[in-house]
Write a structure and sequence with these properties.
By secondary structure, chain A is mostly helical. Chain A has 3 helices and no strands. Chain B is of the alpha/beta class. Helices cover about 60% and strands about 10% of the residues of chain B. In chain B, helix 25 (about 730-750) packs across helix 26. Chain B is elongated and about 150 Å long. The chains are: A mainly alpha, B alpha/beta.
């Protein structure tokens, strides 16, 4: 039989290497990875965290300008 | 499975049907058990106990809305605790789990090893119940995939895929993104109008700016984008340094705000429509209730997840509870409200989007509201002034209402939209006054041209900057969406690949087991395959033809056995911790022909597994006693359950004669008669098989079981006609007695009108004597065996006993 890993292990491995997915925003990948590792990966939390990230980036950009 | 954990002893007290202590003792971990009990005698208490011990819940009870209170025995001391204790093959894992009446639960084993064991065991599929075995087959393709993911411990994979997909869809439909898109279109429109082209590039805006700058002051020139802002700032300062210029800037702001008034009115109309839809929906009690329930449950989930409440306590009623179970139940309840709340969620979404619009409109109105009274009087009629104040009041009030709508499902009231019927005309009139006033402020054409160009430049730069900001904001948003999409797709691909691996692995076994159970059926192959849409389905191959789903051709019993095959295959592959399996009444809907193959499947294909088999089917129990090796299996029975005693287990007599004797001791005459009938049938079948009575040789499956005893006795009589040994008067009498006994036991066991008093103890004792007398006819006095083909030379007419002394 092919090596079949338990679901938790598959998820752990996936998020461990999520940054290796081609052409993605690394800050989004890190954010989702962090939520997963803290066992807080929910739709609402992803949305809220992405919004905060956009605002932070926007503020940072405005400060630069 | 040999190195995996097995059960030695299961003890239950104060739990489900067990009032007092009840034991299921397997004596050693290498033994399997068959527990027989009539319905209601407490078999399921043992499977419930195992399920609760490992998962803190009893799934089928939870689905019916039963909670921990229902786990306690109903007739026990109301302050007593429920206890499930398991002794394992590895004694360091032995543990007593207590369901505390005062709330929570406790494990007596606090070792890390046990904690790890119990955590990892929750992923094993340990129990198959008769009412769940068909569940998988009857599910939709998508549900089958979800169920398989649960079985193989991929539940978390499915959950995370759903979270990522929902997050992706929610980002795509985000009102903020829609609002940014709307604002971008507006800015584009304004820029197109300013430069006088249908389409534009950044350089077009800068070219247009350069032209205006040169017209304002030929000495100024713009070489790059950063110059643009600096030069416009210089020119604005020049304008603001004069009173005329200041006035013109104010008038330009006023003009812009007037232009927005119609748009603001349209937004107010939209809000009014939403309010009406909301108030209509607020009349629907179901929606209001569902909405309130959802809010309550969400608050409870938040309280549990943020650990704001004590573990083991319900945040709503403060009563003791199993937190994990409650959490799952709350989430599932919210899921079920989705349909009722569909309209309400649509309204909330629109309210949110309109709320963002009203906030922006308040900024649009600012320059009108902050205008000096003196200028106001010259630009607006009294009616227009009232209209502007009304619009401003309505905006604030409507914004508040929109927030309320998002929060609560109850009706809301708003000021009616009035006095806005002639807004277009009034706005036009005010615009004309603004233009006239601007005309009056500028004295010379040159001056007029200069101020106009600076205002144009200011607007052009403002729109362009906002346009660029919006592009960046939208770009950042879309980049996030793109990243989440890529993560989702990559995750789904990983999930699909692993599901495919699993399907390939277990299909081989499901097929193997199914063919084992149905050797004479014409199913060539059974396979589990992924479907095009997210899901999986069984595919059968019959005479080269592929059939899917199996419901098309399989009978009820076949579908049940497919359920068992899937459970056994998945347990074989995916149970990492435990080597035992509980099968609770799984053969109830099996036809008799497939029961023995199932017993053999367990014996031959699962030599390493430990089975805890519960049944209420006495015939199946008897078959198992004969087919399963006594050394490896123990047979136990539940006595009749009573509310005072609860359940009780006793050793089950192995032979039918022992069991008839038991029935007689319990004064169960009908039960004894029933077993006598079975015993007669068995003896006759055995004699026919041993002697090779033509046409009645023993066959496997239903054919053998369906034989009528009178058919057997007639065939045996005919076969023995020429046999001198059995032609004497006494032997004939024994045959006649057995015929009579067979008739009596038939009446006693089949005729409902006959009670135990119709058939007395003496009748059954006589039947037993007749049976013994008949059996003795065939037994050698010297070696104690009956003549049989296996002891006799091939083709010999007479059959020998083992020692060869006795021939028939």
């Amino acid at each position: 039989m092919e090596d079949i890993k338990p679901g938790k292990e598959l998820c752990d491995n996936f998020f461990e290497s999520v940054l290796e997915i081609e052409d993605i925003d690394s800050s989004v990948a890190i954010l989702i990875k962090d939520l997963y590792s803290k066992n807080q990966l929910t739709t609402d939390r992803i949305r809220r965290a992405l919004k905060t990230l956009r605002q932070e980036n926007q503020n940072e950009q405005q400060n630069k300008d | 499975m040999n190195s995996k954990t097995r059960i030695k002893k299961l003890t239950i007290e104060g739990f489900r049907g067990a009032k007092k202590k009840a034991y299921l003792d397997l004596e050693d971990e290498n033994r399997n058990v068959v527990l027989f009990g009539n319905n209601g005698d407490g078999k399921t208490t043992f499977s419930d106990a195992v399920e609760w011990f490992f998962t803190d819940r009893i799934d089928y009870l939870s689905r019916e809305g039963c909670g921990r209170e229902d786990y306690f025995n109903r007739y026990m001391d109301p302050n007593g605790d429920g206890i499930v204790e398991i002794d394992f093959s590895n004694p360091t894992l032995d543990c007593k789990k207590t369901l505390r009446r005062q709330g929570g639960l406790a494990f007596s084993n606090a070792s890390k090893e046990f904690s790890r064991y119990i955590r990892d065991s929750s992923k094993d599929s340990l129990i198959l119940r008769h009412h769940t075995m068909r569940e998988f087959i009857d599910k939709t393709k998508k549900q089958k995939l979800e169920r398989l993911e649960e079985i193989i411990g991929f539940g978390i994979v499915g959950e995370i895929r759903d979270v990522l997909l929902k997050a992706l869809n929610s980002l795509r439909g985000d009102t903020e993104l829609a609002s940014l898109g709307g604002q971008l279109n507006e800015r584009k429109r304004d820029l197109i109008a300013a430069i006088g082209k249908d389409k534009f590039k950044d350089s077009d805006i800068l070219d247009c700016g350069s032209v205006l700058i040169r017209e304002c002051d030929p000495a100024l020139s713009m070489t790059n984008e950063s110059d643009f802002e600096r030069i416009v700032e210089t020119l604005e300062k020049r304008v603001a340094s004069s009173d005329k210029g200041k006035q013109l800037l104010v008038l330009d702001g006023v003009n812009k705000s007037i232009l927005k008034l119609v748009e603001i009115r349209d937004t107010l109309v939209e809000v009014d429509n939403i309010v009406q839809s909301h108030n209509e929906l607020a009349k629907e009690r179901d929606t209001v209730e569902a909405s309130a329930t959802e809010k309550l449950y969400k608050a409870a989930i938040e309280a549990i997840e943020s650990k704001s409440v004590k573990a083991g306590q319900c945040p709503l009623c403060k009563r003791p509870t199993d937190t994990e179970m409650l959490l799952q139940s709350l989430k599932s309840e919210i899921e079920q409200l989705t349909e009722v709340l569909k309209k309400r969620r649509g309204i909330i979404q629109n309210a949110k989007s309109l709320c963002e619009k009203t906030t922006l409109h308040k900024i649009d109105l600012k320059s009108l509201l902050e205008l000096e009274e003196e200028i106001k009087k010259t630009l607006f009629t009294t009616k227009m002034e009232v209209t502007i104040t009304n619009i401003s009041t309505m905006l604030s009030q409507y914004e508040e209402v929109l927030n309320k709508i998002q929060q609560y499902p109850h009706p809301v009231s708003v000021l009616p939209l009035s006095g806005l019927e002639n807004l277009e005309e009034e706005a036009k009139e005010s615009q004309q006054k603004v233009t006239q006033r601007k005309e009056r402020v500028s004295e010379t054409e040159e001056e007029k041209k200069f101020y106009e160009n600076v205002i144009k430049l200011r607007n052009l730069l403002g729109d362009y900057k906002r346009y660029k900001e919006l592009i960046v904001q939208i770009g950042a948003f879309l980049k996030q969406i793109d990243s989440v999409e890529k993560i989702y797709e990559s995750f789904e691909k990983m999930e699909r690949e692993n599901i495919r691996k699993v399907l390939k692995a277990i299909s081989t076994d499901v097929n193997d087991f199914f063919v084992f159970l149905h050797p004479d059926d014409d199913i060539d192959e059974v396979e589990l395959i992924p479907t095009e849409e997210r899901g999986i389905e069984f595919k059968l191959r019959r005479h080269g033809e592929e059939i899917s789903p199996p419901l098309k051709i399989l009978s009820e019993a076949h579908l049940n056995s497919l359920g068992i095959c899937l459970f056994l295959a998945s347990a074989k592959y995916f149970n990492k911790e435990n080597g035992f399996l509980v099968l609770d009444d799984v053969v109830t809907s099996f036809d008799t022909g497939h029961r023995r193959p199932l017993a053999r499947l367990m014996g031959e294909k699962f030599t390493d597994a430990q089975f805890l088999l519960f049944t209420h089917d006495e015939l199946w129990f008897d078959i198992l006693k004969k087919d399963l090796p006594a050394g490896k299996w123990v047979f136990k029975e539940l006595t009749k359950w009573t509310k005072d005693e609860g359940l009780n287990i006793k050793e089950s007599p192995i032979t039918l004669k022992e069991r008839i004797s038991d029935n007689l001791d319990e004064n169960d005459i009908r039960g004894a008669a029933n077993k006598c009938r079975t015993l007669i049938e068995e003896i006759l079948k055995e004699r026919c098989q041993d002697l090779g009575v033509r046409g009645l040789e023993f066959r496997t499956g239903t054919e053998n079981d369906r034989r009528d005893p009178s058919e057997l006795i007639n065939a045996l009589t005919e076969y023995l006609k020429g046999n001198e040994k059995l032609r004497d008067k006494d032997s004939k009498k024994s045959f006649d007695h057995l015929r009579a006994s067979q008739l009596i036991t038939n009446i006693g066991s089949h005729h409902q009108s006959l009670t135990s008093t119709s058939l007395g103890r003496g009748d059954v004792e006589t039947v037993l004597r007749d049976i013994n007398e008949f059996e003795n006819l065939f037994i050698c006095n010297k070696c104690g065996t009956a003549p049989a083909k296996k002891y006799s030379p091939q083709f010999s007419k007479l059959k020998n006993c083992k020692c060869g002394e006795f021939k028939i």
